[in-house]
Design goal:
The protein is an alpha/beta fold and 451 residues long. The chain contains 15 helices and twelve strands. The strands form two sheets. The chain has a seven-stranded mixed sheet. Homohexamer. Belongs to the Glu/Leu/Phe/Val dehydrogenases family.
C-alpha cells in the first residue's frame, strides 16, 4: 500500500484483520490464502463523483460523492451510504472492507461495499437535504441495481433519505426494484429493519454471556455510547431483557446515570425525537437520575459496569478507556459501531482474555456483533425478490438465528485456528476474522479470482 496516499482508517482495518490471520495457523496450513488477502484488500471498483445541489438561497453547492464496490464474490455489493462531513475515501474503504467479512458472517448472499458523501445534514433544511439526495442518486443510480449493488442507510441517512433516493432511482432508471434497503413498509421495506442492528447486538452478546457462564442479561449494568438507531434499539432490547442501561452519548458529550439512576424506555423514546430534530442530547432533561457531561465519552464516567457497547462511530474506545472499563469491572465488550475500538484497546482486551482466562473481559468485533443490521437488509432483499413481506415474528426469529450462527462461527473457528490455553475463552475477533475471510477467499478461488 506504499504507492497510495496514507489511508489511516483503511490501514487500521486491514492490519486488524491481517494480524489475526497471521497470528493463527491459517496461513501455515493454507499459505495460498496470502494471495487471496492481497487481492481482497483492493476494491473491485471505486466510483467518485461530484454532487451539485442548490441551497435555499438559490446558490449552487458542491460535494464529493463516493461508492466503494469492494467485493462481489458472495453476491451484489451491499453496504450503507454515509452523509457526514468526515467522509473520505479512507473511511469508506475501511467500512467497505469490514463489510465484506461482516456480510459473509450472516450466511446470506451479499458482497461488500460502502458509499456516501462529505455532505453535512446538520444545519440544513429538509428541502436542502432532499435536493442533495436527489442530486446524489442521479449520479449513483448509474452504478447500482438490485443484482449489482444494493446500498442502505448509515450515519446521516434515515428512512426519509432512503425514500428520496429510491424515488429518484425509480424515475431515473424507470425501474421499481429492491435497489435500496431500509425502505418504507408500504413499498418494499422489512419489519424489524430499524431495530435490527441494536437487537442483533444484544442477541449476540447474550450468547457471549451464556457461553461464559455469566447467566443472562438480567441484572447486568450496561454502558452504551451513541444515541442513534443502533444505540437506541440496543438500549431498549437490553432493558426489555432485564439489564440496567447507564449511558448514551453524542458527538458533544455523554448522558450518564448518577447514583441509582438509569435510562428508561421513556428516555430512549424522548431521545429518538431529539435525534430526528438533529439536536444534541445536552438539551435533554430527565427525571431518571441522568446528567449530561460535555466533551467526554461515557466509558470513564459510568462507574461499575458489566457490559460495554460502543455504538457511535469508529475508534471511540481508546487504550486508556479500555483500561478504565477493565477497572470498572466490564466483562463483555462488543461493538455496535464499526471498528469502535482502537487497535490498542483491542490489544488491552485480548491481553486480559489470555491472562485471566475465564475471569477476563471478552471482546467481540463489530463485523460479528453488529451484523444484524445488514442481515435484515439481506432479508429485505429476499422479500423484495419474492414480492412479499414477512411478519415481525418471522424476521426477528431469522435475526436471532443469524446472530447465533455468527457467534458460533467465530467461536468454533477460533478453536480450530488459534492456540489457547485450558480455560481461556476463544478469541472472537480472530475467529470472526478468519471465518469471514475464509468464506470470501473460497468463493474468490472458485470463481477464478486467484488460483
Amino acid at each position: 500500500m506504499s504507492n497510495i496516499p496514507s489511508e489511516p482508517e483503511f490501514e487500521q482495518a486491514y492490519n486488524e484483520l491481517a494480524s489475526t490471520l497471521e497470528n493463527s495457523s491459517l496461513f501455515e496450513r493454507n499459505p495460498e490464502y496470502r494471495t487471496a488477502l492481497k487481492i481482497a484488500s483492493i476494491p473491485e471498483r471505486v466510483i467518485q463523483f461530484r454532487v451539485l445541489w442548490e441551497d435555499d438561497s438559490g446558490k449552487v453547492q458542491v460535494n464529493r460523492g463516493y461508492r466503494v464496490q469492494f467485493s462481489s464474490a458472495l453476491g451484489p455489493y451491499k453496504g450503507g451510504l454515509r452523509l457526514h462531513p468526515t467522509v473520505n475515501l479512507s473511511i469508506l474503504k475501511f467500512l467497505g472492507f469490514e463489510q465484506i467479512f461482516k456480510n459473509a458472517l450472516t450466511g446470506l448472499m451479499m458482497g461488500g461495499g460502502k458509499g456516501g458523501a462529505d455532505f453535512d445534514p446538520k444545519g440544513k433544511s429538509d428541502n436542502e437535504i432532499r435536493r442533495f439526495c436527489v442530486a446524489f442518486m442521479r449520479e449513483l443510480s448509474k452504478h447500482i441495481g438490485a443484482n449489482t449493488d444494493v446500498p442502505a442507510g448509515d450515519i446521516g441517512v434515515s428512512g426519509r433519505e432512503i425514500g428520496w433516493m429510491f424515488g429518484t432511482y425509480r424515475k431515473e432508471r424507470n425501474l421499481f426494484e429492491g435497489v435500496l434497503t431500509g425502505k418504507g413498509l408500504d413499498w418494499g421495506g422489512s419489519l424489524i429493519r430499524p431495530e435490527a442492528t441494536g437487537y442483533g447486538l444484544i442477541y449476540y452478546v447474550g450468547h457471549m454471556i451464556e457461553y461464559a457462564g455469566a447467566g443472562n442479561w438480567a441484572g447486568k449494568r450496561v454502558a452504551i455510547s451513541g444515541s442513534g438507531n443502533v444505540a437506541q434499539y440496543a438500549a431498549l432490547k437490553a432493558i426489555e431483557l432485564g439489564a440496567t442501561v447507564v449511558s448514551l452519548s453524542d458527538s458533544k458529550g455523554s448522558l450518564v446515570a448518577e447514583g441509582d439512576g438509569h435510562i428508561t424506555p421513556e428516555d430512549v423514546n424522548a431521545i429518538m425525537d431529539i435525534k430526528v430534530k438533529r439536536e444534541s442530547l445536552n438539551s435533554y432533561t430527565s427525571s431518571s437520575g441522568l446528567k449530561y457531561i460535555d466533551g467526554v465519552r461515557p466509558w470513564l464516567h459510568v462507574g461499575k459496569v458489566d457490559v460495554a457497547l460502543p455504538c457511535a462511530t469508529q475508534n471511540e474506545v481508546s487504550k486508556e478507556e479500555a483500561e478504565g472499563l477493565l477497572a470498572a469491572g466490564a466483562k463483555f465488550v462488543a461493538e455496535g459501531s464499526n471498528m469502535g475500538c482502537t487497535l490498542e484497546a483491542i490489544n488491552v482486551f485480548e491481553a486480559e482474555r489470555k491472562e485471566k482466562k475465564a475471569e477476563s473481559v471478552w471482546y467481540a468485533p463489530g463485523k460479528a456483533a453488529n451484523c444484524g443490521g445488514v442481515a435484515v437488509s439481506g432479508l429485505e432483499m429476499a422479500q423484495n425478490s419474492q414480492r412479499l413481506q414477512w411478519t415481525s415474528e418471522e424476521v426477528d426469529q431469522k435475526l436471532k438465528d443469524i446472530m447465533k450462527t455468527a457467534f458460533f462461527q467465530g467461536l468454533n473457528t477460533a478453536k480450530e485456528y488459534v492456540k489457547a490455553e485450558e480455560g481461556e475463552l476463544p478469541s472472537l475477533v480472530a475467529g470472526s476474522n478468519i471465518a469471514g475471510f475464509v468464506k470470501v477467499a473460497k468463493a474468490m478461488h472458485d470463481q477464478g479470482d486467484w488460483w
